[in-house]
């Protein structure tokens, strides 16, 4: 049996979907029968790990042995120590993937092809880190897909009406917010731009609930709230109740405290405004105003909050579109993409028919440039080689010249930024190194820099000394800086995931 699968490896919740024999994608519940699995890992003293609901229940009680929101650190140099072992965002993510894989395979058998989703604004390193995590989990990952694109794909394939125009995908999840604008014509999706706030999601709303409850508790008892008596999970439960009710009860240390939706909305209005500002930035990038958007598509569990729908109604003058469960569409879209990438001989006729006639074009998530010396200004500046929102795949070159006679080296850097900035202090340098040049030449030797951005979201960079033909090809993959990646010592079979 072919098991064509898509995995949404989320900041707070993950989900797995399978393309059924009839050609439609469907979420596969975990062992506990839940469609979504918390992306929470708890280390146990016997060397094994718990992933999902059981691990999440320990939040507030066993925090020193818990890792959550690890997705925010993907591609970064962070480590976690637990029971004498060092873990990284990659190894922790691999445990979450292993749990999803295990629960899936217990029912359907081995996964034959898989796509894992990544945020549109993930860096090259974070994408590489995701691939590595999949590999450690024993998944043969050939493709990733950007989350908003996956959601758009699920929407386009499920839509009853013919789509034609610009659509906004509004994804407010547990930890991050993204707004993507895509041109969709039937089943052809052309991503125009993405904007977002890295740290804005359900967790921030939960914290506001805790603040409200803690001040009410203080008022009622004169005492400070004990975090063990009102955990982040309790706050989340109240928040979720307030999506369908005007009032919810917080039970803390024998006290019953009422929290109203009105109080909650007042306390979180600045969070909603932040999301609104991102939506406006995305519209500006595309050069349209809200009336140019055909429909707004809701993605992410936090879009169940009525205040999100209200905010969007106000901005766009129409009801946003909810199809199915907003926390499942990314995984559904990922499995459709996995089928799209599967050899058509491995699909049955129904699956083949469903997967035909669609296309995807992504946009570059950042400005990628280089730092050079501007002789007119007498200072270092950034020149962008690939602009944000450039359609990918793409390749661009730019020419620079050496500054000094007998110059034997040139400093090569790759910069990344969310905006068109020329001040080197304001951009992130993602690679830095030297290109050796032959001695004895005058200044003014041409150096050609070429950047490419591939369909799979990875970048290629090369620095060429034109006269000598000497090239420095840059490898932006993890571990390419010479250090031995910690993950090399990680044995995925040395512990059990449950
Ligand atoms: P991720 O960001 O990890 O991809 P999801 O899209 O599943 O996650 O969103 C998870 C967030 O959605 C959590 O913060 C959760 O509390 C929130 N959420 C889920 N259901 C509701 C609801 N009914 N009302 C408010 N928030 C909700
Ligand atoms: Mg998500």
Please give a quick description of this structure:
By secondary structure, this protein is an alpha+beta fold. The protein is about 30% helix and about 30% strand.
Helix content: 25-40%
C-alpha Rg (nearest Å): 24 Å
Beta content: 25-35%
Backbone structural class: alpha+beta
Rounded mean pLDDT is 94
Number of strands: 27
Number of helical segments with 4 or more residues: 11
Q: Bound compounds, please?
A: adenosine-5'-diphosphate, magnesium ion
What coarse outline follows from CA principal-axis ratios?
globular
Give the low-confidence spans.
none
Q: Gap between N and C termini, in Å? A: 25 Å
Largest sheet: 6 strands, mixed
Overview of this protein structure:
This protein is an alpha+beta fold and about 500 residues long. The chain is about 30% helix and about 30% strand. The strands form seven sheets. Strands 1, 2, 3, 4, 10 and 11 form a six-stranded mixed β-sheet that branches. The chain has a six-stranded mixed β-sheet with strand order 17-12-13-14-18-21. It has a four-stranded antiparallel β-sheet with strand order 20-19-23-24, with no helix packed on it. Helix 3 (about 125-135) links the parallel strand 10 and strand 11 (about 140-145). Helix 2 (about 90-110) crosses helix 3. The chain is globular and about 85 Å long. The two termini are about 25 Å apart. The mean pLDDT is about 95. It binds adenosine-5'-diphosphate and magnesium ion. Adenosine-5'-diphosphate binds near residues 173, 175, 240 and 300.
